[in-house]
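User: Can you predict the 3D structure for this chain?
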Amino acid sequence: MDFYSIASGSSGNCIYIGSDSASVLIDAGISCKRITEGLGRIGRSLEDITAILVTHEHSDHIAALGVLSRRASIPVYATSSTIRQILRYAPLGAVDESLFHPIDADLPFSVGDLQIEAFRTSHDAADPVAYRVECGGRSAAVATDMGCYSRYTLSHLKDLDVVLVEANHDENMLQAGPYPYPVKRRILSEKGHLSNVSCGMLLAQILNDHMKMAYLGHLSKTNNYEDLAYATVMSELALDAQCPYREGDIPIEVASRLHPMDLVHF
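Assistant: Here is the predicted structure, written as structure tokens:
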């Protein structure tokens, strides 16, 4: 399998996961041009994409869906409530509704040889999900846009080879920052976003000996920066007496919002 973060951040998200015979994009929240250029860096094109898996209807996850549907007719998978919201989103323009395929959380489905399971997240959207993708005994997951996590969340993030999890904000930067108070409350709520501290606490419970890479993703442009997110997560790992892993034991990187990361083959 291959895992490739084209972009991950509060301004747009798009992750590629593929096997030798099928490939998906998880979200399409950046421009079609950036997606095309990103795929080109790993020798792929839009024609190679078997499906797009949408986590929820916010613009930083669906901005390119309209252009992609008109240009490449790529099937789109999302929950029924998310599809309804997408089709109401005027900036996408005309879209072919026959390309949309409703899925349910906790009901596995297949795209080619990729086995996929959506699982629910706690976020202020119609019916948000994260995705776990498996093929040939390998597995990867993308879990962002969640104000909190639970045993249910952790159960879907166990024994992964690659994972991208949310480290959206530093709480002190958010509290002291320029956002209006209602927006701050939303981000800090259980329907908002995971902080750096919460991300570190989550990672401490899902790292494993065969994990090839863990990414910190969906960083806020205003309330976080890469070095702070990384340092805070490492500190949380060090503070967790139940976690055997420390800095350097498993590759952990911050996924960029501006440029693609290196391809991870596993």
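Residues 52 and 220 are 24 Å apart (CA to CA). The chain has nine helices and 14 strands.
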